[in-house]
Amino acid sequence: MSEGVRVAVVGGGWAGLAAAVHACAAGHRVSLFEMAPQLGGRARSVRKDGLTLDNGQHILIGAYVQTLALMRQVGMDVEAALHRMPLTLQYPDGSGLRLPAGPALPAFARGVLGWRDLPWGDRLGLLWWAARWRLRGFRCPPSMTVAELARRCPRRAYQALIEPLSVAALNTPAEQASGQVLLTVLRDALFGPPGAADLLLPRRPLDALLPDDASRWLRARGAHIELGRRVMRLTADDTGASVDDEPFDHVIVATPPGEAARLLADISPAWSAAAAAFTYQPIITAWLRAPQTRWPQTMMALRADGLRPAQFGFDLGALGGPADTFALVVSGAAPWVSAGADATRMALMNQWEEAFPATTHGPVEWIASRTEKRATFACTPGLKRSPARVHPRLTVAGDHVEGPYPATLEGAVRSGVEAARCIG
Ligand SMILES: Cc1cc2nc3c(=O)[nH]c(=O)nc-3n(C[C@H](O)[C@H](O)[C@H](O)COP(=O)(O)OP(=O)(O)OC[C@H]3O[C@@H](n4cnc5c(N)ncnc54)[C@H](O)[C@@H]3O)c2cc1C
């Protein structure tokens, strides 16, 4: 297609922003329609009692190459915006894995060998387990869960490392989560290039991490961005596609799966039925104020079980956020959503007091919590995800689209880049 192709992007989350930036960079005329009054989708900032908080605490890793490339493309200073630290799953009692800096594979081996609170047999068992999956090319039967994948992994290493990584990356409990998707993430992170396994923690609110810079970049290049506009109807034929009867040469649908299923019901009933069949996993984020509390590092792993909801905690003050403010994250949170807000709040306060008795000076105050019931799709074994190409004039982007990654920022951005490549 020649310069001046009219492209509509429906949905201004990170997938839609990636698609819009790439379509614009390719010389197309881009219109972006977003239903909400702001861009960012699930990865956006929210205001609460005068504080700017994130819709949910987000973690990026060094292996998010396309997300980092997109941030740089729209002019962000990535090193300033993200706090980089080697992969560390350290618990409040000081136990846990801490990888040294440097090339990923030797760093993983050195980190495991230096994991002091893990018996020697378990350290070697974990390395042997990882080496075996590497030899198998990080492939497992599609029906395998993470728990089955880790059957030969030493129990203590499984509980302190594999289970928390699974719930953090896939937002799905290990007994239900796809072993293959976790293997893909482990391959890219632990066996990728130097820095791939590093944790990248936002030092800015999510809006200032991509949506603000991306929208400035797009507007400066003539893109049309319409906020507060819910697209109601799409059509597509051989000559083009339309958005609420406005003609375009190509449309990229970058909404969550349920809304994509509605919009595409007439264009591709089969695609629409598959997207409507997704099941979801919630995430709860709670914010607490704990004056004069200092953690040894900005992110702590927490022991979660039937009484303790959160798997991770973040010191937002140390990350440039509001002072004395901490975020607790409950991934794969379905049991806690069922338990109700009061029970979850009480359990989180108890968990905090139990985990941080020595570092808390003064009363801990509950600020707020936020439950995203459809935070991500449930990343289960053999899950059939729908393809990006629905029609020659219409492609789909979003973290739910067919791809190797779980529902993450990187999955969303990759799908957006790919959808823009399909234009023409
Ligand atoms: C609490 C929480 C914590 C998370 N933590 C992490 C993490 O640590 N690391 C990580 O990588 N990922 C994390 N994720 C996942 C990540 O946020 C998502 O994978 C990603 O944001 C999905 O982007 P998307 O563009 O595919 O979809 P969305 O962000 O859902 O964007 C879709 C957009 O489409 C708009 N829209 C819908 N219908 C219409 C319509 N008809 N017309 C116009 N616009 C429409 C919506 O308003 C929305 O803005 C987390 C998610 C949540 C909710």
UniProtKB/TrEMBL annotation:
<keyword id="KW-0560">Oxidoreductase</keyword>
<dbReference type="InterPro" id="IPR036188">
    <property type="entry name" value="FAD/NAD-bd_sf"/>
</dbReference>
<dbReference type="InterPro" id="IPR050464">
    <property type="entry name" value="Zeta_carotene_desat/Oxidored"/>
</dbReference>
<feature type="domain" description="Amine oxidase">
    <location>
        <begin position="15"/>
        <end position="423"/>
    </location>
</feature>
<protein>
    <submittedName>
        <fullName>Hydroxysqualene dehydroxylase HpnE</fullName>
        <ecNumber>1.17.8.1</ecNumber>
    </submittedName>
</protein>
<dbReference type="Pfam" id="PF01593">
    <property type="entry name" value="Amino_oxidase"/>
</dbReference>
<dbReference type="GO" id="GO:0016491">
    <property type="term" value="F:oxidoreductase activity"/>
</dbReference>
<dbReference type="InterPro" id="IPR017830">
    <property type="entry name" value="SQase_HpnE"/>
</dbReference>
<dbReference type="InterPro" id="IPR002937">
    <property type="entry name" value="Amino_oxidase"/>
</dbReference>
